[in-house]
């Protein structure tokens, strides 16, 4: 099977690569701390993902993009499409942009003395923050916004190098010092200035990665730096990720607390496992489908904003798909499911169940559908849950108490369901997108306006609102968003612990 996989991988690699699945990176010049880290030991350990939906190609005819039911997809000045979010509804918050195909989610950051705008992937699985440098001549850098001495009088570049391998990408460069402004907070930090990037980065709009793990990489830990500068009262950030097919991008990251307007009911918390070695990983209770449990126990789930889908041990993934009528597989890695499947999957943490919409766990192509749950151990014997899950919940990463919280997402705001796709660098797009009339106050770091600090929800309701199960969207028209303009095979070389 491995030979067949590698042959397919090489075939698709030659054809083109249109996916990026970053997660915890390992510094190339040192070993990863702990065996749970997600390392890239070499291409032979990779697998090929036939991903059926994607955003528009950067070379597509701009006149052919868009849909009456979704945002018009026209090119940014550097030919990347970016779906602009609504205005933030809480202080110390930033709207989360996305690529229009639910693959990557990023915020606008301003770099240096001139506040040059750059798009940064929000990555809870990365400790290193870096941005593409102006001296970089790689294809990806030539297609993105870059940052360098001509952009800032305060930039200082070190002689020390940094190098990182991701699941499907690699960057190398020099360490640098300058100011970064995110969500209205400006601070001087050490970050990576890439002078070489792999071709994988050519296919997505973000210009760098904002590392939000609990641990540190080659650069300053961003959350740690915010705390050190006393810009936050608590080491916590909360994420609300929007789904492109919903027609409204209300994605938002809030630093230092939560935004009560983005969730309903209580936040249920699960402590980060001491076995996670500083990563955002929590014990997984079980996965189920249509009321039938798979019996999965004793696993950790890594919660990663920088990963698009979900990956788990082969036996676990087989167990969950065994519960799905009509699911088939040839290799126990990829699973096909009937296209009339309209039942959510259910994942349980600390006794509380959360649903994953078929919009997210199924990809559709011309009458053939594939599960986005893959039988592959990115982390040995453990699970990796990315945006496939996070689009269905409001998520709180609480570094102060070392826990992760989930809550039911609030209903979408009552605004016109058309969010412009910006076509120019961030500095030119101010004023686009929908606006909400008022901003909600930032909830203190106890995690919830309706739940005492440190208290875990037991599933009780609050004011009639369900406290644990996210709102499930109707399955009508749920399997294929109109922004998924065309179809290409893509390759992802996944990390695996040696």
Automatic annotation (TrEMBL):
Low complexity bias: start-end ranges: 417-429
Cysteine pairings via disulfide bonds: 136-141, 339-369
Keyword Protease: yes
Active-site residue list: 123, 304
GO cellular component labels: plasma membrane
Origin superkingdom: Eukaryota
Keywords linked to the UniProt accession: Aspartyl protease, Cell membrane, Disulfide bond, Glycoprotein, Hydrolase, Lipoprotein, Membrane, Protease, Signal
Biased composition (Polar residues): 440-471
Alphabetized PROSITE patterns for the sequence: PEPTIDASE_A1
Domain Peptidase A1: 105-407
Family annotation (InterPro entries): Aspartic_peptidase_A1 (IPR001461), Pepsin-like_dom (IPR034164), PEPTIDASE_A1 (IPR033121), Peptidase_aspartic_dom_sf (IPR021109)
Region forming the signal peptide: 1-19
Annotated region described as Disordered, given as residue ranges: 417-476
One example of a Gene Ontology biological process annotation: proteolysis
Single GO molecular function: aspartic-type endopeptidase activity
Localisation per UniProt entry: Cell membrane
Protein family: Belongs to the peptidase A1 family.
PANTHER family: BETA-SITE APP-CLEAVING ENZYME, ISOFORM A-RELATED, ENDOPEPTIDASE (CTSD), PUTATIVE (AFU_ORTHOLOGUE AFUA_4G07040)-RELATED
Protein name, per record: Aspartic endopeptidase
Organism the protein comes from: Cercophora newfieldiana
């Amino acid at each position: 099977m491995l030979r067949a996989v590698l042959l397919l991988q090489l075939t698709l690699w030659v054809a083109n690569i249109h996916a990026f699945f970053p997660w915890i990176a390992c510094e190339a010049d040192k070993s990863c701390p702990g065996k749970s880290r997600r390392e890239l030991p070499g291409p032979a350990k990779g697998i090929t993902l036939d991903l059926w939906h994607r955003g528009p190609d950067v070379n597509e005819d701009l006149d052919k993009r868009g849909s009456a039911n979704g945002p018009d997809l026209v090119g940014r000045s550097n030919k990347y499409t970016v779906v602009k979010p609504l205005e933030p509804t809480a202080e110390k918050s930033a709207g989360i942009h996305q690529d229009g195909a639910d693959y990557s989610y990023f915020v606008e950051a301003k770099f240096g003395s001139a506040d040059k705008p750059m798009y940064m992937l929000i990555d809870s699985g990365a400790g290193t923050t870096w941005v593409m440098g102006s001296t970089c001549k790689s294809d990806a850098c030539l297609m993105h916004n870059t940052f360098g001495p001509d952009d800032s009088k305060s930039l200082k570049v070190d002689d020390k190098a940094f190098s990182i391998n991701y699941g499907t990408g690699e960057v190398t460069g020099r360490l640098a010092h300058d100011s970064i402004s995110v969500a209205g907070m400006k601070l001087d930090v050490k970050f990576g200035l890439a002078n070489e990037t792999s071709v994988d980065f050519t296919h997505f709009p973000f210009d760098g990665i904002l590392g939000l793990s609990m641990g540190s990489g080659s650069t300053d830990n961003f959350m740690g730096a915010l705390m050190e500068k006393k810009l936050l009262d608590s080491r916590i950030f909360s994420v609300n990720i929007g789904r492109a097919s919903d027609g409204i991008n209300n994605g938002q990251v809030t630093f230092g607390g939560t935004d009560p307007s983005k969730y309903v009911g209580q936040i249920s918390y699960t402590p980060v496992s001491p076995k996670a070695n500083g990563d955002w990983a929590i014990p997984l209770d079980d996965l189920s489908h249509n009321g039938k449990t798979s019996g999965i126990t004793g696993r950790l789930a890594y919660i990663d904003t920088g990963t698009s889908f979900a990956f788990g041990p082969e036996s676990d993934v087989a167990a969950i798909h065994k519960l799905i009528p009509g699911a088939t597989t040839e290799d126990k890695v990829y699973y096909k499911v009937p296209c009339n499947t309209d039942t959510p999957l259910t994942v349980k943490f600390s006794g509380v169940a959360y649903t994953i919409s078929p919009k997210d766990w199924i990809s559709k192509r011309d009458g053939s559908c594939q599960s986005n749950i893959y039988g592959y151990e990115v982390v040995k014997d453990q699970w990796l849950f990315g945006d496939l899950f996070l689009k269905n919940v409001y998520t709180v990463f609480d570094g102060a108490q070392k826990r992760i919280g989930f809550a039911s997402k609030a209903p979408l705001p009552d605004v016109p369901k058309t969010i412009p796709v910006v076509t120019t660098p961030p500095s030119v797009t101010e004023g686009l997108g929908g606006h909400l009339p008022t901003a909600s106050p930032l909830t203190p770091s106890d995690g919830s306006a309706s739940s005492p600090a440190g208290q875990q929800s037991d599933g009780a309701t609050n004011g009639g609102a369900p406290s644990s199960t996210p709102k499930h969207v109707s399955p009508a028209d749920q399997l294929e968003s109109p922004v998924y303009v065309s179809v290409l095979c893509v390759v992802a070389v996944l990390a695996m612990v040696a």
